[in-house]
Design goal:
The complex is a heterodimer. By secondary structure, chain A is mainly alpha-helical. Chain A has a domain of 199 residues: Orthogonal Bundle (MetI-like fold). Helix content of chain A is 76%, strand content 0%. Chain A is globular, with a radius of gyration of 24 Å. Chain B is of the alpha/beta class. Chain B is 33% helix and 23% strand. Chain B is built from 12 helices and 12 strands. The chains are: A mainly alpha, B alpha/beta.
């Protein structure tokens, strides 16, 4: 039953994706600047004919609705086109950069959950204590400060002053790793190379924390308020009256109920993780999709921007589906 | 079995300290059923929670003793208290709909009580072979408990969630949780208030049967004097955090001594042919943070005398097992 419903939900994403494709197609063309001009601008003298030939090669000479039609039919066949700049299929470019982005996003999510959930729970249990006040003030900082600022301050403190963590990249220069999953932290473990593992892990910490800080702060706040409400429930009193230890009352009986609203927030925050990754990947020189998108926007490399944004949209939709599925496990009253 | 002496539980508020239970004295023999009667907010629930030391923060017990088989529960460590809760003294709550944890299967919630107090561990033997046997033994015991409290087809309902149960069935499940470790004392805090009248009768019947077959002592907290009269051997009436009258049920009902008890009896509707005008007690329960008179009932009392305002009041033994806190006796 659950399997069929999940499949239904996945199929329902198709019209959403088509809509997104159309919107991004129009918006990127609405941005002033011509890709051919930008490409040729650096090449010295280029004749009008050469420019025209190039426009023709990219289909940019055709009316916009024809371009849209070509783009949609192509996309439905699974072909995202070729990068104007690099003359390489967009799919290849995305596949090359995606593992780095996934590694960073997962790192950020793990950081956010590992920090946010315990902080929220402790703040609620010790409501109005010093711990509570300090962590809520901290979460305010996490939500308010922009990624690039947090990233740069992080680099200043941990890389420049303390010299604990590297400033950019995924591995020290000179090191390389065999791609299995493309996530270096996992690959190095699969290869059994602890030195590579530590190296890639060190590189991952600061970008993950920067990207995950806002999400961690959000989780901590939601967790705290839902926990405060749950702790007043009758079933928490019953759990105590049964003779359970306070730890068991909180972790087993209260936490699971308090996680329900938190999971929704995590789903919605996927957007923050995706949007933030463009900035964070740029700040930390992380060779992922986000940094590629930023470069492609500068170059008006339409196909790459379109492909990457569609990937973002798809990820967002899938993340919300995963949240809905998780929900049914956490809350038996809800079905898909 | 249970002897409460001078129990005083207070809640600090912005308006001052509220004494929710004021020098409560209570004694109870094993297997006895006592009814604790009073209006909302008179300190019944707080007294029950004080026995289990579960008074919610910032409330606290400031003085008094709760002797359970001679041992003072007020002086027990948190760990010792946990071994008593659920095992020696169990509690059932007012609203079954909100008392079961919505995310766990009902059967598992009953099993948890067995597990926590290691009820099935002795027969089961040691890990690892014992673990599997123990789980099965616990499940069997849960099914047996569910059967005993009258949950139909317990095998199937073991795996259901609370929202799939009706209110009456949920209360039965909660009674099964309370009963799991065969406690010697059951604190029932308004167990039927949230239920339909017909279900109320079934639940009270069930509680009486448990009292008869297991010899479990029961303190039934209720605002319904009718329910208490029907169910209990002894009635304790509370008003504004104090016990105002105590005695055998028949005596208290037929010859109420305290003016408050008399007022309560007059305000119960009865099913008779003749139309009888109900007489509500005038006024409202006083603000516990701001008690003006020594007798908290003074300004609502129809038998008040000038000396009531200042005279010291104590719970006086007037013979025949009856105690009353009033200057009239």
């Amino acid at each position: 039953m659950r399997g069929i419903k999940v499949l239904e939900r996945i199929l329902a994403t198709i019209p959403i994706m088509v809509g997104i494709a159309v919107i991004i197609f129009i918006f990127i063309r609405a941005v002033p600047g011509d890709p051919v001009d930008l490409m040729m601008g650096e090449g010295g003298y280029v004749s009008e004919e050469e420019m025209e030939a190039m426009r023709k090669a990219f289909n940019l000479d055709k009316p916009v609705h024809v371009q849209l039609y070509l783009f949609l039919t192509q996309t439905l066949r699974g072909d995202l086109g070729e990068s104007f700049l690099k003359q390489v299929p967009v799919t290849d470019l995305i596949l090359d950069t995606l593992p780095a982005t996934i590694e960073l996003a997962l790192g950020a999510l793990v950081f956010a959950v590992l920090v946010g959930v315990p902080v929220g729970v402790i703040s609620a249990v010790k409501q109005n204590s010093l711990v509570d006040r300090v962590s809520m003030a901290g979460s305010f900082v996490g939500i308010s400060f922009p990624h690039f600022w947090l990233g740069i301050i992080g680099i200043l403190i941990f890389s420049v002053t303390l010299q604990w963590l590297p400033t950019n990249g995924r591995l020290d220069s000179g090191l390389s790793i065999e791609h299995i999953t493309g996530l270096y932290v996992i690959d190095s473990l699969l290869l059994g190379d602890l030195e590579l593992f530590w190296n890639s892990f060190h590189h991952l910490i600061l970008p993950s924390a920067t990207l995950g800080a806002a999400v961690a702060a959000m989780i901590a706040r939601v967790m705290r308020s839902s926990m405060l409400e749950i702790l007043r429930q009758d079933y928490v009193m019953l759990a105590r009256a049964k003779g359970l230890s306070e730890y068991r009352v909180i972790v087993r009986h209260a936490l699971r109920n308090a996680l329900i609203p938190t999971v929704t927030v995590v789903g919605l925050q996927t957007g923050v993780l995706l949007g933030g990754n463009m900035v964070v990947e740029t700040v930390f020189g992380w060779p992922g999709v986000g940094r590629m998108v930023v470069q492609s926007i500068y170059a008006r490399d339409y196909p790459v921007v379109q492909g990457a944004v569609m990937l973002y949209a798809f990820t967002f939709v899938i993340a919300n589906l995963i949240v809905d599925i998780l929900y049914t496990y956490l809350n038996p009253k809800i079905e898909l | 079995m249970l002897e409460i002496k001078g129990l005083r539980t207070v809640f600090p508020t912005s308006k001052g300290e509220v004494v929710a239970a004021k020098d409560v004295d209570l004694t109870m023999e094993p297997g006895q059923i006592i009814g604790l009667v009073g209006e909302s907010g008179c300190g019944k629930s707080v007294t029950m929670l004080s026995i289990l030391r579960l008074v919610p923060h910032p409330g606290r017990i400031v003085s008094g003793q709760v002797l359970f088989f001679g041992e003072d529960l007020v002086k027990k460590s948190p760990l010792e208290m946990r071994r008593i809760r659920g095992k020696e003294i169990a509690m059932i709550f007012q609203d079954p709909m909100t008392t079961l944890n919505p995310v766990f299967k009902v059967g598992e919630q009953i099993r948890e009580s067995l597990r926590i107090h290691g009820i099935m561990s002795e027969q089961a033997g040691s890990w690892p072979w014992g673990a599997r046997y123990r789980l099965q033994a616990e499940r069997d015991k849960v099914i047996q408990l569910m059967e005993e409290v009258g949950i139909p087809s317990p095998q199937a309902r073991y795996h259901e969630y609370p929202h799939q149960f009706s209110g009456g069935m949920q209360q039965r499940a909660l009674i099964a949780i309370a009963l799991a470790c065969e406690p010697r004392l059951l604190l029932a805090d308004e167990p039927t208030t949230a239920l339909d009248v017909t279900i109320q009768a079934q639940i009270l019947d069930l509680l009486r049967r448990i009292n008869e077959t297991h010899g479990t002592g029961i303190i039934l907290v209720t605002h319904d004097l009718g329910v208490a009269a029907e169910f209990c051997e002894e009635i304790v009436v509370m008003y504004a955090g104090q016990i105002v009258e105590r005695g055998p049920t028949d005596e208290v009902i037929q010859r109420p001594l305290h003016p408050y008890t008399r007022g309560l009896l007059r305000s119960i509707p009865r099913i008779t042919r003749e139309k009888r005008k109900l007489e509500p007690i005038p006024g409202v329960v006083p603000d516990l943070a701001n008690l003006k008179y020594n007798c908290a009932f003074y300004d609502r009392c129809d038998a008040a005398l000038p000396k009531c305002e200042h005279d010291e009041l104590e719970l006086r033994d007037v013979g025949g097992g009856r105690l009353v806190r009033c200057v009239l006796y």
